[in-house]
Every structure is written in C-alpha cells, then in structure tokens.
Amino acid sequence: MIRSALMTPAATLDDQGRPIADSAAGARSGGATPMAAGAGFVRPQQAMDPGLVYDAGEKDYVELLCTMNYTAAQIGVFVPGFAGCTATLPGGGLNYPSFVADLSDGAGARVLARTVTKVSEGPETYTAKVVAPDHLVEVSVTPATLEFAGHRNEMKSYSVVFRSKKRPAAGMAQQFGEIVWESNVHRLRSPVAFIWD
C-alpha cells in the first residue's frame, strides 16, 4: 500500500519541467524510461493523500513466487509452515501500480487486471486515460470510469487489454506508456512497459 502511495503520484518531470534525465544514456537520451527512473520522483505531499492505492498482500506475493517456480522449501524460508503452491498468478498479474505487457508471442491480446482501494474520504469518480505508442499497440481499459461512493477501503477492479498492432523496429523492442486514473481531486499514474522480445 505504501509503495503504491509513493509510486502513483510520482512526477516524471524534474523541478525545471524537463523529463527526468537518464545519466547512463548521456546527452543522447530524450529522458529516462521507467526502466531507469521507475515511477519517477516521489512527491511526498501527494503520497500522503493518493486517493486510491494498489494493495498486494502475503498471499499475492506467495502466488508470485509460485509463478516464478520457487520450491516450497525456498518459499518456506519467508513463509514459515508453507506447505506448497496451490495457485499461481498469470504473468504480470501481481496487483502492482505498474504494468509489463509482454507482447512477444505476437498473437492475440494480453489482459491484465488490477484492483484499487479507496483511501480518501468522499465520493469520487475516476476516469482512465491511456498514453501509449498508438502505432504499435492498442490499449483499452474496462471499465473506463470508476465511481466510488465515498467509503474508505471501497474496492474496484478493472482490466486492461493490450493488443500489439505490429512489432517495433529492430533495437526498439521496449516501448513505454502510462495509464492514468484522474478525478477532480486525485491523479494516479501507472507506468507501462511494452515488450516484444
């Protein structure tokens, strides 16, 4: 929950209004990608009141470890008494405030789901906005609007469909975008990495 509150309101521009620089890429860089800068610069004031958070608990992380083929003995180091994997997550299925859309198989669509929890008071309506390399990928969010009655801990789920239109040029197998949920009070941004490897 804390990770989400720090990530989703983070800024992708520096204090001069320029994209965060990628010092490893040097002057040729047009700015840091989420692979270099993560979600961006933490904005403490906004992190104290993010509006919504993505929450993942112990069960979610255990399922992630199972998905990554950790053994019961290995997981037992972190989860005493762990008996064995009973469920796994689909790739990218951890309820996390970022997305990785692996489009490398080139067939069909990739669907990822997320659940957000309201942590602020008062009714709010959030609308989704997608920023993506439109010539390469089509992204749709369902539902595109989330309405909250105003109760803390109210939860809503949504799904995102990522559909590759074509492969990027050689050497450009990673592209980036974002999904933004915005109300009249709060703005949450989730970085998206599109991968065609």
TrEMBL record:
One Pfam family it belongs to: fn3_6
Protein known as: Subtilisin-like protease fibronectin type-III domain-containing protein
Keywords carried by this UniProt record: Signal
The family this protein is said to belong to: Belongs to the peptidase S8 family.
Sequence ranges assigned to domain Subtilisin-like protease fibronectin type-III in this UniProt record: 94-193
GO molecular function: serine-type endopeptidase activity
One GO process term, biological-process aspect: proteolysis
